[in-house]
Design a protein that fits this description.
The protein is an all-alpha fold and 110 residues long. The protein contains 4 helices and no strands. It has one domain (2-104).
Length: 110
Amino acid sequence: MLIVLSYAVVTDDHVRVDFLSEKLPVRCVALIEFLLISVLVIPLLVFMTETLVQYAWNSFVKGESSMAPDGLPYRFILKSIIPFSILLLMLSLVSRLIKDIALVLGKPKK
């Protein structure tokens, strides 16, 4: 889901509150989006990444595997996908921040 969310942010298909953004100018929407992403979302994702990297590392060190006889032998691989997908999301949000800065500064949207 996080990997798909990264794609949605890059392609501008993510969910937003349209009834507010329809009434505000494009520059104002870009400024609000910039502030919310940089003040709320990025710090939260950094905190999540720090926590989840430790979670995946502990699984790797313990050699954790599934309890089921035919289960996944290397569970840390799945646990490593979570912080990796959050890093992809942060990268896509940085791309969105650059687009918002361009809109606020008056550069045309391509």
